[in-house]
Amino acid sequence: MVIALDYGEKKTGFAHSDETESFAFSGRLLSGYKDVSGLILLIDEAIQQYSPKVVVIGDPSYKGPNKNMENINKIAEYLKEKNIEVRMINEFYTSEIAKVNLKEVKNKNIDSESARQILQEYLDNLKH
């Protein structure tokens, strides 16, 4: 099982793979946290539920140094301490693709759709 995160200061998109690690599915939006420590508690719940061997995190470093990268690195370190492999995937343009994919959907969860995009890219690259 693989899960993915599209980090944001106020809300983080979440996605998970199927058991065969072929398909990515949007999950619940992780929100309601005040800081990265609060988010880590929510991520811990997801780890308990899905038992992932890999967590893929959207990498916003194409934007240059920023506070999001600092918090993403804290999350990555926490996951590594739990012996979970962390993979960073460039998240460039995933929000725009998510908006197109969800154009017809009433209750849009763009952040989790972005996480799904990131995860599907990772899964597709595993097959090649």
Short structural description:
This protein has 128 residues and is of the alpha/beta class. The chain contains 4 helices and 6 strands.
Could you explain how this protein is built, in words?
This protein has 128 residues and is an alpha/beta fold. It has a single domain (2-126), classed as Nucleotidyltransferase, domain 5 (2-Layer Sandwich). Helices cover 43% and strands 23% of the residues. It has 4 helices and 6 strands, in the order ββββαβαβαα. Strands 1, 2, 3, 4, 5 and 6 form a 6-stranded mixed β-sheet that branches. The chain is globular and about 35 Å long. The mean pLDDT is 87.
Task: Kindly report the CATH topology.
Answer: Nucleotidyltransferase, domain 5
| C-alpha Rg (nearest Å) | 13 Å
User: What is the CATH class designation?
Assistant: Alpha Beta
CATH-level-4 superfamily name: YqgF/RNase H-like domain
How many domains in all? 1
Portion in helices:
40-55%
Strand fraction equals 15-25%
Poorly predicted runs of 5 or more residues: none
Q: From N to C, what is the helix and strand string?
A: EEEEHEHEHH
Round the mean pLDDT to the nearest integer and report it: 87
User: From the helix content, strand content and strand pairing, which structural class follows?
Assistant: alpha/beta
Number of helices: 4
Largest sheet: 6 strands, mixed
